[in-house]
Amino acid sequence: MICGGGLAAHITVAMLSRQLPATIGITFVQLGDTSGTDLFYGSVAGPTAYAFNRSAGLEEPKLVLESDTAFSWGTKYDHWASGSRSWIQCFQLPLPIIDGVMFHHYVVQQGVAQLEPFLAAAAAARKGAFVHPPQKPGAGQEPLSRSEYGYQFDAMSYGGLFDACTDRGRVRIVNATTLEIERDESGIAAILLASGERIAGDLFVDCTGPDALVVSRVGSSFAARRKLGAAISHSPSAQLGAPMRTVSPTSFGWRSETPLRGRRARLTVYHPDSTADALQEHPDGAERTCEITLGRRSDAWCGNCVAIGQAAYVVEPLSTAPLLLLERDVERLMSLIPSSTDMSIERREYNRQSAEDHEHAELFTRAILETDHFPDTPYWQAVRAEPTNEKFARKIELFQDRGLLVSYDLEPFNPEDWTILHFGMGRGPARHDRMADRAPRDRVQGFLARMKRDVEKAVASLPSHATYMAELSRYLTQNRL
User: What is the pLDDT of residues 383-404, one digit of tens each?
Assistant: First the structure.
């Protein structure tokens, strides 16, 4: 039984209805309104979204033709680190490893401060250009074959796409305004609706957002951190903008601009004490607002109830972490669907992975926020007041000292994400791997120069994001079955 409404619920129902064996019955109790808190899933999905969406029945042509979703190379952080640095946190396949030495050590050896000139996705994003990366390297396209892409989306329309993909022949849908829980020794025996209907189940999935209307009643406590507000507004756009979101720091927190098809989305994230300042960024008024508390529940899976997405934890949408974690929740649930009423083994493993996912996603968010020269305002004061995680300190210290990328079990962000972030923030290593010195310096210098030229050449002829999307839409429409 799946309880909830909004993005997490629609994604979960679509995936389970498409992937679970036909012998498993599914009931979807539509409950609650998460349209406000869904703002905290952000507006950018990473490269994992393509395969995940297909598993849930959402093919990319449907995404292109039936929504305002656009393509994305990543996020530009504008005048962010130290109040002046700007970089594009793009999606990237593994960078070259040459003679057993990671690529960034050769960059440091040559005294190059920026990684971005070697990243085709970043160069294309700055140009406002897009094409699907080639599956196989071709003439002049090698740099693009190492690039990855995601999607720029609006949470409400994105959730609607998954709702349309649900196999309604498999799912019983029930509307509810309130519910009560009937307990037994395993946790939950049934839910009781206001109409008097009793619906029993073996496994209950809570997708009710931060209110966690189901799992909160079976003993899972919430460890709160910072409280944040968010507001969103949209403005018409005659032409599709660049395939990247832009995030800028402000006195109240931060602001993002996300180009969508036919409109642009502006999201402000702020400390509740600065609500008035944040709302001034929406001249025609905010369409949706919410307040939310960052943090995590003690157990995402408690008894026979599994919390998905914001019912289990809330993270700041400064990166792709919120939607990435939601995808991983659903995939983890799929892999651990219990085969009996004794769910202890599945529950223990689910909770281990869920807790680590949340912690490691928070490390990445913290690494973006770890910078100086921001205002002494409530949002930034609260950021600075948060304790430093030992894992985070180890990641930063070892990279700054010797360019070592510290990795933990099943991290949601890969080494390339961290390398691009470190260089973008200006955290260059103090020394490079001395094994890089085995290669003649002029040979390394020539290799980097060619790589930079190849990126520039590959990107120079790319069509604009708007042109590519229009042509792709026309092609898909003409060839749609």
Answer: 999 998 999 999 999 999 999 9
Q: Which amino acid is at 400?
A: Q
Q: Are 34 and 209 in contact (CB under 8 A)?
A: yes
Beta strands in 262-335 (DSSP E): 263-270, 288-297, 301-302, 305-307, 313-314
Place of tokens 């100086």: 372
3-state DSSP call for residue 83?
helix
Distance spanning both ends of the chain, measured CA to CA? 34
Q: What is the pLDDT of residues 195-234, one digit of tens each?
A: 889 999 999 999 999 999 999 999 889 999 999 999 999 9
Distance CA 304, CA 203 (A): 5
Edge to edge, the sheet with strand 2-4 lists 171-175, 26-30, 2-4, 204-207, 305-307, 301-302
Q: How far apart are CA 419 and CA 151, in angstroms?
A: 22
Amino acid at 346: E
Q: Where are the beta strands (DSSP E) in 21-121?
A: 26-30, 44-45, 70-72, 74-77, 87-90, 97-98, 101-102
